[in-house]
Amino acid sequence: MIEFNRDDKRIIVSHTRYLEDIRKEADQIVETEKTKEKEEVKKTIKATQSKVELSTFGDIEGFSELKEQMAAANTPAPVVAETPKAQPAAAAAPAAPKAAAKADDLKKIEGIGPKIEELLHAASIITFADLSKAEAGALKEILNAAGSRYQMHDPSSWPMQAEMAATGDWDKLKEWQDNAKGGKIE
To answer: How far apart are CA 177 and CA 41, in angstroms?
Structure first.
């Protein structure tokens, strides 16, 4: 359909052209509103970020010191006999044979993973023989001191399992572990 509009001095070819013009105008309005909204969001974010207090390296150092203090408070301190400063460093040599002992893979014990193995090593429990001699209560204290992540573990069967491993009775240990769930007999 062709129309002539005297006021605008133009010819309108069809109604579809007229509708396209209206859509373009509506799209431009929507685009303008989106741009305004984005700008408002950016301003709001900048205002919020300006209110946030930035940490400094001094703060980070303070947090690391606090973390070390908390870690020290949660781990049992090793019992070390004080030696006078006048003695030579050779006085500490008797502790070396314990550290020189070949460490067993304590993770073979049901319920012990890499992190718990590290905790046991820190408590001078390095071999299956060491673990077999440990009291379940002492093991539980080590776990409790390490924090809530470790408190859920039950070390009551660890000395018995370690005794089987220390004596080389691997078949008996495997059979026990196959019948146990999470280090506990069902």
So the answer is: 59
pLDDT of 92 > 90? The answer is: no
Q: Classify residue 124 as left (phi > 0), alpha (psi -120 to 50) or beta.
A: left
Nearest Cα neighbor of 95 from 126, 136, 138, 139 is 126
Cβ atoms of 158 and 112 closer than 8 Å? yes
Secondary structure (3-state) at 10: strand
CA distance linking residue 148 with residue 157, whole number of Å: 20
Number of H helices, E strands in the chain: 9, 4
The strand pair at 180-181 and 184-185 is best described as: antiparallel
pLDDT digits (tens, 9 = 90+) for 114-127: 999 999 999 999 99
- How far is 161 from 104, CA to CA, in rounded Å? 13
Count Cα neighbours of 10 within 13 Å in the Cβ-side half-sphere: 6
CA distance 2 to 40: 45
- Within 13 Å and on the Cβ side, how many CA atoms surround 153? 27
Indicate yes or no: pTM above 0.70: no
Check whether 80 has a pLDDT greater than 60: no
